[in-house]
Amino acid sequence: MKNVVLLGATGSIGTSSVDVILQHSDIFNLYAVAANSSVQKVAEIVRKYKVERVCMFDPNAAKELEGILGMKVLAGMEGLCELAADPKADIIINALMGAVGCLPTITAIEHGKHVALANKETMVMAGPVIWDKLAENPKSFITPIDSEHSAIFQCLEGGKRESEVEFLEITASGGPFREWPVEKFETITVADALNHPVWSMGKKITIDSASMMNKGLEVLEAHFLFHIPYEQIKVVVHPQSMVHSLVQFRDGSLMAQLGAPDMRIPIQVALTWPDRLRLETKRLDLPTLAKLTFFEPDFKKFRCLALAFEAGRRGGIVPSMMNAANEVLVDRFLKGNLKFTDIPKYVEMVMEKAPDVTGHLTLDQVLEADAEARRLTAALIK
Predict the structure, then answer these.
(1) Is 60 exposed, middle or buried (0-12, 13-18, 19+ CB in 10 A)?
(2) Do both 244 and 361 map to the same domain?
(3) I need a surface site. Which of 121, 262, 268, 379 has the fewest CB within 10 A?
(4) Contact between 122 and 323 (Cβ < 8 Å)
């Protein structure tokens, strides 16, 4: 029996993770959970599945939950990292949203854990630091949960074929604005941006998908997960979202991974690899698919995608600053304080102010860059 710590238990990935764990309750035990502030949802999970340890990132929510459950509830970043380091934990599912997920990932690696990673910001912000930590802690390893990176991971047989890659092709649905003329982007509302044509996700990642920043973050994540140079990573728009990514090998073979758009599939792969267990989910019926289409992305219309490639090529602290600026801007957009088109505009302004850092990147540099970008973004949009 493997004890699973689920960080981000109440989000869409967290909910799907619980379902996968329950389908294989003979193998996995939901040992600990963490969330931001959804007290009632966490209380229900803890009671229903007899969870032993709990953390709420919001300290006030932690106090409230303690009163409801009558058990100790950890709080804040310290609490998240304590769960990530728990000696009884075997697998850490990091389904946290945003930069808050970085330190728990590093803590888990330092304590030799298997990290099932959905928090792409970890790799975007601190990819070189993660490389160093994995080298220092050979018992620890990462399996990706993002459907695109899971697809690549499977095509590479768990990362064993990286030296044979000619290029990676990361697929994107194109989001709700794929066919919108750029002239209409000034009129985009929050409701428009949250209307994703394929996936049901949290608000922040749905906005990132609409701007294609999410795909940009995935490019950086793929670079750090699979050690593939940026010039060998492509993005292709695939509206049907049935092909989750492709790998072009140096012998001319093109390998793709297909599956229904159901996040439980890559979650289970991340938990059980290299074994494949039964999962109750929809199967693809190829004759009914009719056709699968692929297009080049429009980098001019989706400026965030181009900015992410630029941040990756510049390296250093630029990806961390880009990510932090985007988090602030998406939050303001969701609150109705910014236009959709302001997101790439201000991200670019922050990136222009980001210094190019050479040499060995440290965790302190990453966290300082994140904080500085948030201050700078807030000042720019006052």
Answers:
(1) exposed
(2) no
(3) 379
(4) no
